[in-house]
Amino acid sequence: MSASATPSVLFVCVHNAGRSQMAAAFLTHLGGTRVQVRSAGSAPADTVNPAVVEALAEVGIDISTETPKVLTTEAVQSSDVVITMGCGDACPYFPGKRYLDWQLEDPAGQGVAAVRPIRDEIERRIRGLLADLGIEPAA
Does pTM top 0.90 for this prediction? Predict the structure, then answer.
């Protein structure tokens, strides 16, 4: 971890329109100001997947104003934990960073019914990540 008392986490997927957006939203929702959250994509889409927006709204998380962001070297360098979700070799590697690869189904092109189980799995993993970071999730 960095010298800062607040750990930083970067979620990366190809389009930054589904999985990484959901993960960032859950970590922000459950971790609050106790963790710095970023998400990005190696080839960002124009908009966040509407089924992802709807699936998160069902659990009280609004990401309707989020937009996909491009992955930068600086984002990786300034993060303590980098979690990839299918971006392959597009994510730069820096020694001393904690890298995790979460194999999750891609919600691209799927309806909200197919996105719900992906959403629920991401929430489960985020709760585990918070435990690993020693952060109690918000109620």
Answer: yes
| Predicted local confidence at residue 90, as pLDDT | 64
From 71, 91, 126, 130, active-site residue: 91
Q: Tally the residues of the chain.
A: 139
Catalytic residue among 12, 13, 27, 48: 13
Over residues 47-73, the pLDDT tens digits come to: 999 999 999 999 999 999 999 999 999
40 burial via Cβ count (<10 Å: 0-12, 13-18, 19+): buried
Interhelix angle 50-57/112-132, rounded to 10 degrees, is 60
65 is catalytic: no
Q: Is 87 labeled as catalytic in the residue annotation? A: yes
Query: How many angstroms from the chain centroid is the CA of residue 102?
Result: 10
> Does the annotation mark 13 as catalytic?
yes
